[in-house]
Amino acid sequence: MSIFEKLGIVTNIWTKRIDDGDRFEDLVRQFGDHGFEDMEVREGDYLRNSEFGSLIGELETAMGRYTDEQWKAICDAIWEGDQDSAVTAGDSPLFARVGAFIELAKNLKLSYAMSHSWLGAPEDLEADTQQIIQAKKLAYLLCPVNARLRIVGLAPTGGKTDPQAAVANVKRYRSLLPNCPMVFAVENSRQPATFTLDLAVQGGALLTYDEANTYRDDGTTVNPPEEFWSAVRMEDLTSVHFKQKTADGVLTQVSEGYVDFAAIGKRLVAGDYKGDLLLENTPTDQPLEDAVSSRVYLSSLL
């Protein structure tokens, strides 16, 4: 079986469908039924403006009413098909709604991702800490057995990256909410992948790699992919994202372009890669058809 047969998705490919009124839960079910079992719930306006985003907002408010230990117990109980006694009577309807979603997602592997200014020293340390704790609590609720939080680097204060502060941030983020174990990952975005990899390794985090992000619009690279693949160990990777870029930008389906997906697949197979593979096409009004076509194309390469 091709490594690409187990392709998953990042939920921002649903942006147009959700903006047009589709329910997040219905898209989860639809994509799960078509074999896309790994799903990374990507933060963004499309999500927050949806009914499911409102549920997340209510959960974030409810977090303050429970200790970290109580939150973990509640999450574990919901995934076991129960409702923990720590849930207050007032919050019972809220967690019943969560339970209905978990029932839908129980055979899937959900993770959580958001943009965050981690590449420099935070302006407000306490606010920065609380934002990560809140995100970790959501990540744990989505999948206690295989919880993962990924952050994508926003430009730091003043626009200048501070590697020492970035590593300190990663170490601090990893130490937060220790009672809820999870993978903590950062992604290469605007910075060179080798640079981001080095920060992740120093901080003890894993890396989410997206080779399309290394390409500029004209096809030149921020740093050559070969340089990254020579530096990375498979155990440093938790996820590899797939989208194709050409002079026209990121495509709606994976096909020919700057990124050599066959080469990536061969490297992953040779290295016995254990992480997930996630599709992140440009959103359209037919994301399922685009995802299936992308999976067929990728599977034909190996």
Q: TL;DR of this structure?
A:
The protein is α/β, with parallel strands linked by helices.
Describe this structure in words.
The chain is of the alpha/beta class and 302 residues long. It has one domain: Divalent-metal-dependent TIM barrel enzymes (TIM Barrel), CATH 3.20.20.150. The protein is built from twelve helices and ten strands. The strands form two sheets. The chain has an eight-stranded parallel β-barrel with strand order 1-2-3-4-5-6-7-10. A two-stranded antiparallel ribbon has the order 8-9. α8 packs across α9. The longest helix is centred in the middle third of the chain and has 18 residues. The N and C termini lie close together (9 Å).
Main beta sheet: 8 strands, parallel, barrel
Order of adjacent strands in the largest pleated sheet: 1-2-3-4-5-6-7-10
Mean pLDDT: 95
Q: Tell me the CATH architecture.
A: Alpha-Beta Barrel
Q: What structural class do you assign from the helix and strand content?
A: alpha/beta
Count of domains = 1
| The named CATH superfamily | Divalent-metal-dependent TIM barrel enzymes
Cα radius of gyration in angstroms:
19 Å
Q: Number of DSSP helices?
A: 12
